[in-house]
Specification:
Layout: H1 13-18, H2 33-46, H3 50-66, H4 77-88
Helix pairs in contact: 2-3
Length: 90
Amino acid sequence: MFFAHKNPSSFSWDRFNSLIAKDGRTKVRSGKVYEYFNNYIEELDAYEKVGTAEVYKNARDKFKDYRAILNFDEVTPEFLNAIQRCALTP
């Protein structure tokens, strides 16, 4: 599970630090973005955070519309700006 706590909105420095590798890069950078989206959405649904889960589903779907396969190391400011421009274009 993605959360280490019962409350998905809580933040834990221990959990955050566990995601940081010794060289300062996050361990999740090599992971697939959509797997993390899906895991997070499942946890939100389990905690009945339906509205927040919908926001994440919509964000995931916009990312997928732009790029079918996406790894964390591909998510850059330029990539996010491009998605934003695409989403704002009628």
